[in-house]
Design goal:
Enzyme class: transferase
Helix content: over 70%
Structural class: mainly alpha
Number of domains: 1
Shape: globular
Radius of gyration: 17 Å
Number of strands: 0
Number of helices: 12
Keywords: Cell membrane, Cobalamin biosynthesis, Magnesium, Membrane, Transferase, Transmembrane, Transmembrane helix
Membrane topology: Multi-pass membrane protein
Distance between the termini: 39 Å
Function: Joins adenosylcobinamide-GDP and alpha-ribazole to generate adenosylcobalamin (Ado-cobalamin). Also synthesizes adenosylcobalamin 5'-phosphate from adenosylcobinamide-GDP and alpha-ribazole 5'-phosphate.
Order of helices and strands: HHHHHHHHHHHH
Main location: membrane
Amino acid sequence: MSAAPLRVALQFLTRLPVSAPAPDAALAGRAMLCWPLAGALIGALLALLGVALGYLGMAALPLAVVLVIAWVAVTGGLHLDGLADSADGWIGGQGDRDRTLEIMRDPRSGPMGVTALVLVLLAKVAALAVLWRLGNAIPALIAAALLGRASCLALYLSLPYARTEGIGRSAADNLSPPAAWTALGLAWLAAALLAPLAALAAAMWVLWVRRALQRRLGGFTGDTAGALVETVEVVVLLTAGLAF
């Protein structure tokens, strides 16, 4: 099997120095099937960094801060941008679909967008610090990054794309549902083996967000998919902290 879809996925989702062919619509669709695997690789890299820092004697709180900084760096803040835009649009749109989409299209971040970014990053630092003290941060990290990207597949499979154009339009039109359902199921099974309660909590959160998006927008956008990635990661980390 060609590694091109995974390389395309890593090139899109990370800032890792990965060489990949310029994707056509079909390859972009196949690359989406590799998003959960790309997430697991992101989590594994962060876990290795955490182990190295712990070996050097770094305390849990500063270690968690470094891990979150590395998390942002390796993803290039891709999903944080979507989180900020979605928060601004969701609050500023006041229930109106067209107004919500218009605000999300604005590249500038308003007060709610900034607030959402701060809260999510603080939640990740706090959860990771607790998990590292408990000695169970590694499976939670991998599960969080894996399920964050898998949750995007869930949106693509269950909701229409809300815009006529956009970064996710082509991929949405060329995704194979049977293959995507298989990838999604395997991703959640792997996460359940790593952090069972967290995987359940993430599934419940995805279902709630999907329902909210369907009611407000009648679908999803790239920004809302990014927001889902970030919030799923937080849900997984916080739940894993409660479970141990």
